[in-house]
Specification:
single chain, 123 residues, alpha+beta, 6-stranded antiparallel barrel, globular
């Protein structure tokens, strides 16, 4: 069985319904959308996020590999529009397995993302 079929089954069973805006048309897909932890790591002494809570700053998107995303695209999930900050395809054995992306709620400016990154680097 191909890797994509495992992921497709998991997305269909556990994924969120996501609408991807592509130049005037909208696609509906299933994807995992979850909050990003600081610096993308879970710290040993860090507190766990309570179930159902997230601070809505940045989210990680993992979706089907046959639906690539580009920077600046719009995604609608859980009653909120998000902008794709960056996205890449994970491929293995010449097969696009999944797409990962960093999403930002549309009420934040894209420059804020880079300001946050600069502050993290200064620490």
């Amino acid at each position: 069985m191909k890797l994509t079929s495992y992921l497709d089954r998991a997305l269909k069973k556990f994924g969120n319904t996501v609408r991807i805006s592509r130049g005037g048309r909208t696609e509906v897909v299933k994807a995992f959308v979850q909050p990003l932890r600081r610096r993308h790591r879970l710290y040993i002494n860090d507190r766990y996020i309570p179930a159902g809570y997230f601070d809505n700053r940045y989210l990680l998107y993992i979706g089907p590999g046959d639906r690539p995303l580009k920077d600046g695209m719009r995604i609608y999930c859980k009653h909120t529009w998000y902008t794709v900050v960056t996205a890449e395809i994970f491929a293995s054995h010449d097969e696009d397995i999944y797409v990962w992306a960093i999403l930002m709620p549309e009420y934040r400016r894209k420059e804020d993302y880079y300001d946050d990154f600069d502050r993290e680097q200064d620490r």
